C-alpha cells in the first residue's frame, strides 16, 4: 500500500472541502481496502465519511423508503419495511458477499463498487478503466466473468453489485450532493454509465459528489418482486448472472406493470425493456414467460469465455418470473 | 475536526482492555492486532476479505479485520479469539469445535469460531442450512465443513 493521509470528516461540507483538496472518500472500506492493497488506487488522502449522520432507513410522508447512504448492507437487509415491501431488494442484499462484509459495507458504497474484471485488479496488465488508453486485456483474455451487454471495444467489465440491479427494478433514485452543496436525484437506472470510449468514468457522479441516500418510491410497494442470482458456488460469490423482477398483475391476472433488470452480464445494471413489453397485458403462464425471456439476451456480444451467459441470462429471467408467479 | 495525518495514536478496547498503539494510516486492524498488539490468534489469510481467517467482532458484529483501517476502529470495542475463554474455561463455541473435531490444520479456526460466535449472537444459526449460509465467508481448505456445521449447531443449541 502506498502512503496516504487520513482524517475523519464530521459533515458534508467538511467532506466537500477535503474532496476539493484531492481526498478520496472511504465509508465501509470493503472495496477500498482491496483496491489499496493491490495498488489499483493510490490516493494521497482518505476522508472518512463514517461520522456523517447518514445511516438508517426512514419512511417518508408519501410512503417512500429512504435508505441513508451509510446504512450497512446487513442493516438494510434486516429492515422489516424493506423486506415486506421490496423483497427483490432484501433478497439481493441477502445474496451479497459474506455476513462479515455485509456488516461493514454501506449501501452508498455498494453502488460505487468497482469491477471484478481480473485485469482492472492486476496492475501489471493493460486496462483502459484503470489506465485510460492502455488497452483492454479482457477482450481476448480471461473473460469468463465479463459483460455480454453494454460493452465497447475499450471495456467489457461488469458492474458487479447486486443491490443496484434490484434498485432498478423498484424504480429507485440516488440523492447526490455536489461540492457546492447542491443536491439532485438521479434514477438508479441512469446512475451507472456505459463504458464507451471513457470506461474510467463509471457513474453520473462528478468528482467530490457525495451520495446521501437512496429512495424507493411508494408506488413500488404495489409490485411483487423477486431476485435470482446464479453463481459458481451456493454462497459468497459474484453473480455470473442475476435477474431482478418487479410486477403487478391486474384483476384478470394479466401483467399490468413490470420492470426487469439483469446483473452480472452487463457493464451496468441492465434493464430488459423488450422482455417487459412481451409480458405486458398477458397472463403470466409458463409459455408466455419462456417466450418473453428469450428476448433477454437481445443484442448480446459474446467473447471466447462468456458465451454461456446469453442462454444463462434467458433462463435466469425465466426462473425469476416462474418463481415470482408461483408457476414452478 | 483533525487535519489529515499519516500517523495516529489509536485507542481501541480489545477484549475489554483499553489499548493505545501508534499506527500508520495504512495499517489494517488485522495488522495492528497481530504486529502491534501481538494478538496473533487472529490469522492473516488472503488480506482481501475472501477467506475469513481474520474475522473478529467489532462492537459485537462480525467483520473481516483485513478490510478495515485500524484508525477507523478508534474508540471501538474489538473482540478477538484471545478474548473468548474465561481463564482456563473455553467459550462454548471453542469447546464445541474441540468436541466435534471441527478443524484439521487449525489456521482458519479462530476466524471460524469468531464468525460462529457472531452468527449465534445474531440469532442466525437456527438450522444447518442457515449455519452453512452464515458461515460461507469462512473458508476451510482442509474441508472440515461437516464438523464445523455440527459444532456450530451444538453450540447454538447450548445458547452459544
Automatic annotation (TrEMBL), chain A:
It holds the Pfam family FAD_binding_5. Transmembrane segments: none annotated. GO terms for molecular function: FAD binding; oxidoreductase activity. Residues 1-221 form the FAD-binding PCMH-type domain. This is Xanthine dehydrogenase YagS FAD-binding subunit. PROSITE patterns: FAD_PCMH. It comes from Belnapia rosea. It comes from the Bacteria. InterPro entries: CO_DH_flav_C, CO_DH_flav_C_dom_sf, Diverse_Substr_Oxidored, FAD-bd_PCMH, FAD-bd_PCMH-like_sf, FAD-bd_PCMH_sub1, FAD-bd_PCMH_sub2, Mopterin_DH_FAD-bd. Keywords: FAD, Flavoprotein.
Automatic annotation (TrEMBL), chain B:
CDD domains: fer2. GO terms for molecular function: 2 iron, 2 sulfur cluster binding; metal ion binding; oxidoreductase activity, acting on the aldehyde or oxo group of donors. InterPro entries: 2Fe-2S-bd (IPR002888), 2Fe-2S-bd_dom_sf (IPR036884), 2Fe-2S_ferredoxin-like_sf (IPR036010), 2Fe-2S_ferredoxin-type (IPR001041), 2Fe2S_fd_BS (IPR006058), Aldehyde_Oxdr_Iron-Sulfur (IPR052914), Beta-grasp_dom_sf (IPR012675). PROSITE patterns: 2FE2S_FER_1, 2FE2S_FER_2. Residues 8-84 form the 2Fe-2S ferredoxin-type domain. Keywords: 2Fe-2S, Iron, Iron-sulfur, Metal-binding, Oxidoreductase. SUPFAM superfamilies: 2Fe-2S ferredoxin-like, CO dehydrogenase ISP C-domain like. The keyword Lipid biosynthesis does not apply. PANTHER family: OXIDOREDUCTASE WITH IRON-SULFUR SUBUNIT, OXIDOREDUCTASE, IRON-SULPHUR BINDING SUBUNIT-RELATED-RELATED. This is Xanthine dehydrogenase YagT iron-sulfur-binding subunit. It comes from Belnapia rosea.
Amino acid at each position: 500500500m502506498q502512503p496516504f493521509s487520513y482524517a475523519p470528516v464530521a459533515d458534508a461540507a467538511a467532506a466537500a472541502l477535503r474532496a476539493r483538496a484531492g481526498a478520496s472518500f472511504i465509508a465501509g472500506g470493503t472495496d477500498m481496502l482491496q483496491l489499496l492493497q493491490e495498488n489499483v488506487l493510490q490516493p494521497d488522502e482518505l476522508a472518512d465519511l463514517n461520522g456523517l449522520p447518514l445511516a438508517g432507513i426512514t419512511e417518508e410522508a408519501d410512503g417512500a423508503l429512504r435508505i441513508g447512504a451509510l446504512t450497512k448492507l446487513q442493516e438494510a437487509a434486516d429492515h422489516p419495511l424493506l423486506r415486506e415491501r421490496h423483497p427483490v431488494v432484501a433478497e439481493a442484499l441477502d445474496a451479497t458477499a459474506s455476513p462479515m462484509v455485509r456488516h461493514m459495507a454501506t449501501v452508498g458504497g455498494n453502488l460505487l463498487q468497482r469491477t471484478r474484471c481480473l485485469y482492472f485488479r492486476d496492475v501489471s496488465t493493460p486496462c483502459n478503466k484503470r489506465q485510460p488508453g492502455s488497452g483492454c486485456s479482457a477482450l481476448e483474455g480471461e473473460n469468463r466473468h465479463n459483460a455480454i451487454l453494454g460493452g465497447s471495444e475499450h471495456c467489457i467489465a461488469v458492474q458487479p453489485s447486486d443491490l443496484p440491479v434490484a434498485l432498478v427494478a423498484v424504480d429507485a433514485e440516488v440523492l447526490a450532493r455536489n461540492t457546492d452543496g447542491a443536491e439532485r436525484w438521479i434514477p438508479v437506472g441512469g446512475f451507472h454509465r456505459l463504458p464507451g470510449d471513457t470506461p474510467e468514468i463509471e457513474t453520473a457522479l462528478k468528482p467530490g459528489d457525495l451520495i446521501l441516500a437512496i429512495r424507493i418510491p411508494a408506488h413500488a410497494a404495489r409490485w411483487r418482486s423477486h431476485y435470482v442470482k446464479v453463481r459458481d458456488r451456493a454462497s459468497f460469490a459474484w453473480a455470473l448472472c442475476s435477474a431482478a423482477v418487479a410486477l403487478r398483475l391486474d384483476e384478470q391476472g394479466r401483467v399490468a406493470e413490470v420492470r426487469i433488470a439483469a446483473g452480472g452480464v452487463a457493464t451496468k445494471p441492465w434493464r430488459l425493456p423488450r422482455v417487459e413489453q412481451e409480458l405486458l397485458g398477458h397472463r403470466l403462464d409458463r409459455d408466455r414467460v419462456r417466450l418473453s425471456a428469450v428476448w433477454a439476451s437481445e443484442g448480446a456480444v459474446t467473447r471466447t469465455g462468456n458465451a454461456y451467459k446469453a442462454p444463462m441470462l434467458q433462463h435466469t429471467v425465466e426462473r425469476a418470473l416462474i418463481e415470482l408467479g408461483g408457476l414452478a | 475536526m483533525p487535519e489529515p495525518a499519516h500517523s495516529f495514536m489509536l485507542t481501541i478496547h480489545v477484549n475489554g482492555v483499553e489499548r493505545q498503539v501508534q499506527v500508520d494510516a495504512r495499517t489494517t486492524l488485522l495488522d495492528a492486532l497481530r504486529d502491534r498488539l501481538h494478538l496473533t490468534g487472529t490469522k492473516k489469510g488472503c488480506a482481501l476479505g475472501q477467506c475469513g481467517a481474520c474475522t473478529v467482532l467489532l462492537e459485537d458484529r462480525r467483520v473481516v479485520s483485513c478490510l478495515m483501517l485500524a484508525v477507523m476502529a478508534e474508540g471501538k470495542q474489538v473482540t478477538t479469539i484471545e478474548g473468548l475463554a474465561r481463564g482456563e474455561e473455553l467459550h462454548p463455541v471453542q469447546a464445541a469445535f474441540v468436541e466435534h473435531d471441527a478443524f484439521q490444520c487449525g489456521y482458519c479456526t479462530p476466524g471460524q469460531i469468531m464468525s460462529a460466535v457472531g452468527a449465534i449472537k445474531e440469532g442466525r444459526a437456527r438450522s444447518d442450512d442457515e449455519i452453512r449460509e452464515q458461515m460461507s465467508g469462512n473458508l476451510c481448505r482442509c474441508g472440515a465443513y461437516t464438523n464445523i456445521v455440527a459444532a456450530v449447531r451444538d453450540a447454538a443449541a447450548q445458547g452459544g
